[in-house]
Amino acid sequence: MAVAGNTPTASFLTKIGKMQSAGCRLCRITREARGESTDGLAAETHGHINSADCKGMATTFTAAHHSIWRHLYDSMHAAQKLKSKLKFVTLDKESNMSTLWQQEKFLRICSKEDLAKKAEDIEVTIPDKKSQEARYNLDPESFFVFRFWGRRPDGVAINEALQIGYFLVFNFVMGNRGSVVESNFYTKLKKLDVQEKDKLSADHVTQVCRAHNRVIVSFLLQVQGGTRPTTEGSRENIGHNVHV
Ligand SMILES: [Zn+2]
What we know:
The protein is mainly alpha-helical.
């Protein structure tokens, strides 16, 4: 449905004349429950539902993201070539670029100053989010470097002998820009010295499809059931029939 573009979202249903408004139904329920205005609702598209932008889906979406990433990271680690000098680093919740660059093994790759300089060139090309506007206005000079040091990679692999680090960011998006574009995915796996790429890729696609299905089912149950959206919850039960 994601690829065919016919997920029964309000956006799609409005297009085919089955609904009056393309505004997100779950965001509406969430806002109404909080007594907030329902003006200017985001369009209920496949992309919106499958993102943390949808207020009622944030918990479900984040849990799905973590679940797929955990599976992929463990699979890549397990399928590494025996001779590989690349080590997967275990990250804790506090790990961001700043805390990583306090460690000797990262400082040996390059100095903090050199990294900040290079990172700034890239960061200025990435637009700031609405929520970051105040921070930008406060100090536009240091905003981009500050934002870079606060970035939290999903995973890190490091080759200490060659002084190379790979910082892995997993975006849970389906379709052409997603994590399952084969050639791109294979190139990255190769860089990480991962073997059995076909099996790993097939497993990953299965995981992504299952997770998308869980997300969509959770969404539809919440908007059609008229129950309160899941904005809080544990990892084990993240919504109606959604267990991760
Ligand atoms: Zn929404």
